């Protein structure tokens, strides 16, 4: 039995009498098909009884009498009415006028039990009396549901005139109830909408309920998007008008459009971006991977979906990524970090990740948006800059800045171990100015390069040499146990440096002056160590060059 929402509303709430629809079974049995709220109140039946066979809970008469009357009605197809008394749970008794109405619908037979409370009658005439408080309460409930409903509700007669409107419709339309009742609903809307609404109106009064949406201007000229439901208003099996519910869905539709537009913008950005765009869930699993994954990493994005954010990430970077991911969600802060990720053919590449957590209006985590950009070239450039910052461009040896950092580290290590096992040698190439004046600066530069290589080749793997500038070099000797070890290195340097060399057809012998110092105390700074070695070098040059001097940090001469 097909029921529209309006018919159900009328049956359950709109009709103030007790109504029970009994279905006639194929074997002559009777079953509860529908029971309205008033009948629930009077009989004690509940929704759990729907579908059950007829029980003893029938208003005021015995089951045998009811079954006899039901059988008679099914046979004669004629209605039957009677008056009865029905005791209430509070042991009071009310008077009911009951009508049994046969109904045939879609080749099925039903009986409508209609029980209407009677007015008060004298006990001499009847033992029944009536308290109509429940009836009035039902009326009040219906009016409250109609008047206070948040949706705009109104009813129209068959000509389209307003019969009744609720407060919400007054607000929506901008008109007072007195301006609407009795007037045609179509006169309040613009012409281009009249044809649409009349089409739905005609279908509804023919019994076909309508559900649709439309955008209409209201009295304030603001346009509203409405979800409209039109249902036939049926009384005694005849359609006498229509019942209309209008729900304002403007904000909802606006939000849906904005969401679609946002999703479309995101899709266009993601599909055209040369960065990796990724969405992660709360557990760090990949919800979305942009098409750029394929040409940046050589892997189709579908392979990443469902994988952990650590997929193809270098092992040494995983812990910091996990830590930053958790911190970002817990503290609701964006994150930026660098890591290495594997390319199918190019191997490990450097990337920079920028992630931002997204939360809903209630503060619940939705996902994290991650934009990742390859920075391999940038890392190479940064490495080159670091190299240039610490490298002498002429000899490719480390420069003063690099040497000072290494010397500082060595001093700190000596202080921790409370003893020193290193020395500093300042080296000056003799006669560079004369070579530049006689043969030119290019010749002098080549002589410096030869000089630097000979120093480098004379040292052990743990030793460090740097060019300070001009003709000055400095050496950090590691793991020396005595002054004799230092002097042995100095002598080896002298022997290797003064071997004859031919530069641009000119054969010459290079020589060097050297100053050596060893820390006897650990209170010296690296700058003081360098000054001490420079002081020893000065003394060596004062002695006639091509020689060396050794000074202790306590100025004790060896």
Describe what this molecule looks like in 3D.
The protein is an alpha+beta fold and 558 residues long. A hairpin with a 5-residue loop joins strand 8 (210-217) and strand 9. The protein has 16 helices and 22 strands. Helix 13 (432-439) packs antiparallel against helix 14 (441-458). The chain has helices at 5-14, 37-43, 63-76, 133-147, 167-173, 177-180, 191-205, 250-272, 292-297, 315-331, 376-390, 400-417, 432-439, 441-458, 483-497, 526-542; strands spanning 18-24, 30-35, 80-87, 93-105, 108-117, 152-157, 162-165, 210-217, 223-235, 238-248, 276-280, 286-289, 335-343, 347-359, 365-374, 423-429, 464-469, 472-477, 500-503, 506-509, 512-518, 548-552. The protein is rod-shaped. A 5-stranded antiparallel β-sheet has the order 2-1-5-4-3. A 5-stranded antiparallel β-sheet has the order 7-6-10-9-8, sandwiched between helices. Strands 12-11-15-14-13 form a 5-stranded antiparallel β-sheet, with helices on both faces. Residues 420-553 form the GGDEF domain. One of its GO terms (biological process) is regulation of DNA-templated transcription. Pfam families: GGDEF (PF00990), PAS (PF00989), PAS_8 (PF13188).
């Amino acid at each position: 039995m097909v029921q529209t929402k309006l018919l159900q509303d009328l049956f359950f709430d709109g009709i103030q009498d007790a109504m029970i629809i009994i279905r006639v079974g194929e074997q002559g049995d009777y079953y509860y098909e529908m029971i309205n709220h008033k009948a629930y109140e009077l009989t004690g039946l509940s929704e759990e009884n729907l579908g059950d066979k007829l029980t003893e809970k029938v208003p005021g008469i015995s089951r045998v009498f009811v079954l006899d009357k039901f059988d008679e009605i099914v046979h004669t197809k004629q209605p039957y009415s009677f008056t009865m008394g029905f005791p209430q749970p509070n042991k009071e008794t009310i008077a009911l006028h009951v009508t049994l109405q046969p109904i045939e619908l879609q080749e099925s037979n039903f009986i409508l039990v209609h029980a209407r409370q009677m007015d008060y009658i004298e006990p001499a005439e009847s033992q029944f009396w009536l308290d109509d408080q429940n009836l009035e309460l039902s009326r009040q409930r219906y009016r409250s549901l109609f008047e206070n409903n948040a949706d705009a509700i109104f009813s129209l007669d068959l000509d389209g005139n307003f019969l009744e409107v609720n407060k919400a419709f007054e607000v929506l339309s901008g008109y007072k109830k007195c301006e609407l009742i009795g007037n045609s609903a179509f006169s309040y809307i613009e012409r281009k909408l009249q044809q649409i609404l009349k089409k739905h109106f005609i279908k509804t009064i023919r019994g076909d309920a309508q559900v649709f949406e439309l955008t209409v201007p209201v009295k304030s000229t603001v346009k509203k998007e409405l979800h409209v439901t039109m249902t036939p208003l049926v009384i005694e099996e005849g359609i006498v008008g229509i019942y209309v519910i209008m729900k304002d869905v403007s904000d909802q539709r606006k939000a849906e459009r904005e969401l679609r537009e946002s999703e479309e913008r995101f899709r266009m950005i993601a599909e055209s971006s040369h960065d990796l765009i990724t969405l992660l869930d709360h557990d760090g699993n990949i919800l979305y991977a942009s098409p750029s994954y394929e040409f940046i990493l050589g892997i189709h994005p579908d392979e990443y979906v469902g994988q952990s954010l650590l997929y193809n990430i270098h092992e040494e970077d995983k812990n910091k990524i996990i830590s930053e991911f958790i911190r970002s969600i817990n503290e609701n802060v964006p994150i930026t970090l660098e890591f290495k990720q594997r390319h199918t053919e190019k191997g490990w590449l450097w990337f920079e990740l920028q992630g931002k957590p997204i939360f809903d209006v209630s503060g619940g985590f939705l996902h994290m948006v991650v934009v990742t950009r390859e920075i391999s070239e940038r890392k190479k450039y940064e490495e080159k800059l670091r190299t240039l910052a610490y490298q002498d461009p002429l000899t490719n040896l480390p420069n003063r800045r690099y040497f000072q950092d290494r010397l500082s580290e060595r001093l700190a290590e000596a202080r921790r171990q409370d003893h020193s096992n290193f020395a500093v040698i300042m080296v000056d190439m003799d006669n560079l100015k004369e070579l530049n004046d006689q043969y030119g600066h290019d010749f002098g530069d080549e002589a410096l390069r030869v000089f630097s290589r000979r120093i480098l080749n004379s040292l052990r793997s743990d030793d460090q040499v740097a060019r300070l500038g001009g003709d000055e070099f400095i050496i950090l000797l590691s793991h020396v146990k005595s002054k004799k070890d230092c002097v042995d290195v100095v002598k080896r340097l002298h022997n290797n440096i003064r071997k004859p060399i031919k530069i641009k057809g000119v054969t010459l012998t290079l020589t060097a002056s050297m100053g050596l110092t060893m820390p006897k105390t650990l209170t010296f700074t690296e700058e003081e160590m360098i000054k001490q070695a420079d002081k020893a070098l000065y003394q060596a040059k004062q002695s006639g060059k091509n020689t060396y001097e050794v000074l202790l940090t306590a100025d004790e001469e060896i």
